[in-house]
């Protein structure tokens, strides 16, 4: 039986793995750290290693020995690099594609296997949920058809990873752009859009924009507690 490894962090990724891997043929293993990946590889010979959401650099010894697949939320070579969702929304994009590409030493420079359209409506959390569903649709396609890779074409555009201090809400934005700024940071593990107000930091989430009006939930946090 063919072996496959899914390497990802986060409780939701493990739960998704437990559900989706049962629907696809093969022997499946889940890892959530570089150490657990090394342990599993010591006793496995996977056809693919899928990296839906990974925080660490994968060493060349793994990239060179196995076919490693990552999933990037841009139409590469446009948008190589960090914080793709936030960089797309802040540039005014309403839709994008999810790209499955082979991992290599360069960041998001590898050949492409497939791309699927991805809507950028809603909060970051909602978009990531849609992305996860698309990712497993792609994983199923890999197992079923083993798609061929093709080189990236076009002029690269590099995205920079955003820093937590860049989550402070700019004062010059129009209302719809404020909505975009709040929603693009509204996901578990991300620093919410915020402003400073005296001894408090006001954090914004659950934004809604309709008919020229914006509403959002606001949390007042004492700065000394941050």
UniProtKB/TrEMBL annotation:
It comes from the Bacteria. Residues 164-221 form the Methionyl-tRNA formyltransferase-like C-terminal domain. Residues 35-139 form the Formyl transferase N-terminal domain. Pfam families: Formyl_trans_C_2 (PF21553), Formyl_trans_N (PF00551). Its EC number is 2.1.2.9. It is an enzyme of class 2 (transferase). GO terms for molecular function: methionyl-tRNA formyltransferase activity. InterPro entries: Formyl_trans-like_C, Formyl_transf_N, Formyl_transf_N_sf, Formyl_transferase-like_C_sf. Gene3D superfamilies: 3.10.25.20, Formyl transferase, N-terminal domain. It comes from Leptospira biflexa serovar Patoc (strain Patoc 1 / ATCC 23582 / Paris). This is Putative methionyl-tRNA formyltransferase. Keywords: Transferase. Transmembrane segments: none annotated.
């Amino acid at each position: 039986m063919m072996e496959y490894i899914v390497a990802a962090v986060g409780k939701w990724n493990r739960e998704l793995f437990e559900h989706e891997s049962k629907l696809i043929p093969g022997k499946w293993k889940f890892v959530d750290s570089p150490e657990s990946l090394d342990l599993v590889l010591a006793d496995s010979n996977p056809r693919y290693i899928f990296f839906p959401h990974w925080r660490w650099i994968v060493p060349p010894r793994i990239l060179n020995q196995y076919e490693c697949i990552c999933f990037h939320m841009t139409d590469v070579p446009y948008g190589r690099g960090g914080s793709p969702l936030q960089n797309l929304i802040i540039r005014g994009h309403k839709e994008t594609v999810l790209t499955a590409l082979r991992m290599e030493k360069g960041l998001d420079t590898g050949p492409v296997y497939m791309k699927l359209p991805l809507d950028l409506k809603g909060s970051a959390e909602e978009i990531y949920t849609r992305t996860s569903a698309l990712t497993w649709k792609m994983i199923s396609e890999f197992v079923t058809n083993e798609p061929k890779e093709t080189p990236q074409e076009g002029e690269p555009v590099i995205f920079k990873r955003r820093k937590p201090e860049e989550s402070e809400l700019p004062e010059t934005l129009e209302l719809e752009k404020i909505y975009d700024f709040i929603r693009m940071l509204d996901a578990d593990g991300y620093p919410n859009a915020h402003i400073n107000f005296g001894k408090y930091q006001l954090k914004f989430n659950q934004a809604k924009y309709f008919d020229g009006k914006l509403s959002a939930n606001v949390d007042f946090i004492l700065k000394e507690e941050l």
